[in-house]
Amino acid sequence: MATTGADGLMQASSSHGNLPLVRRLEAVGFRAWPAASVVYDGSWQVRLTGSHPSKRLNCVVPLDPSDYRDADIRIEKARKRFEHYGRPLLIRETPLAPRQLLENLSQSGWSRFETAEVMTVDLTCLELPDTLDHIPTHDIGRFIDVYLTVQQEDPALKPALAEILSAIKPTCGFFTAEHLDEGPMAAALCVQDNDLAGILSFAVIERMRRRGFGTELLTAALRWARINGARTAWLQVNATNAPALSLYSKFGFRTAYEYHYWAIEKDIP
Questions:
Q1: Could you read off the pLDDT of 149-159 as tens digits, one per residue?
Q2: Domains by residue range for the chain, with CATH
Q3: 101 vs 121: CA distance, rounded Å
Q4: Which residues have C-beta within 8 Å of that of residue 172, sequence separation ≥ 6?
Q5: pLDDT of residue 7
Q6: Cα–Cα distance between 103 and 177 in angstroms, integer?
Q7: Residues β-bridged to residue 117
Q8: pLDDT at residue 66 greater than cutoff 60
Q9: Exposed, middle or buried by CB within 10 Å (0-12, 13-18, 19+), for 97?
Q10: Rounded to an integer, what is the distance from CA 51 to the centroid of its chain?
Q11: Per residue in 29-63, is it b (16+ CB within 10 Å) or e — as a string?
């Protein structure tokens, strides 16, 4: 549900928290889910991917709380760039977004329409459940087939996902759970970037949820990351996804910060 600009601004006025941690998690997040086109306007990162509609791959992300100069001009410049890609302009608000920019958006008819939580857990002392282990596959195509089936997404997205996954520079673990008769059950991508490991594209097919498949696959991914030297795991999850939040909490994940999307009302997905 979208919030009004005023409501969003009120929520955004809370403490920014640990900005160095936010900057580091944002940086590894960008590397873990790379956009096809990335340009900078000052400290604003402009991310666009013509082949895939993911909001994280198609948004403007301000990365310096003090960088608000010529905001109206820069927003219009970004809007035209997004228009060339056939995309509505979205702005992703993290604790690094300038307060003045949020005030401008609020006063200009923009609304906040989605909130996600960035969560972390210390892997060095994490006690993982005793479950069946899964070995990561190196077959990107197979992983994508499982993920699209589990998520019930359009198979036509396979080439775009293959391009995105192939562009990831850090070490990747592609985890899948399949049953001989039932078919694909779950999928998870773990991207290890030095001592940080990100869990992405984690999903369990709807009819098999709450039967342990998610726990098994998440456990396998976290064990793999820890064995390979990761000390902290992170992930991003929609704030309304109660089942996922419950699962992550059981593993010890805690919210480091939230981010939000803003758009003009007519462009809200």
A1: 999 999 999 99
A2: 5-117+258-267 (no CATH), 124-230 (3.40.630.30)
A3: 31
A4: 136, 165, 189, 190, 191, 192
A5: 42
A6: 46
A7: 237, 258
A8: yes
A9: buried
A10: 17
A11: bbbbbbbbeeeebeebbbbbbeebebbbbbbbbbb
